[in-house]
Amino acid sequence: MPITREMVKKAVEEAVLRAYWAMREPVDRPTEAQRPRYVIEWNEDIKAKFVEWMRANGRDERYIKECVKYLNKYMRPIRSPADVVAMFAACKGGR
Asked: Does pTM surpass 0.85?
């Protein structure tokens, strides 16, 4: 069965109405104080723990050095998954 223009129009209309009614429903959103405020920052302490973990897991020293070089260059504070994606998007070369 081919999709007609009328079918698309009806589907869009239904989606818009569902979204509208979902926005109007009261939502129990956490307050600012209730939201977790975890941030991963690349600093000397984290770097040392990362290197220790890599060595404990049998990684080659050259590989560890290369990873640390990239993290030193591209790492930024990570507050959400989008920050991880943005960090990797900024990487040049082998990605």
From this structure: no
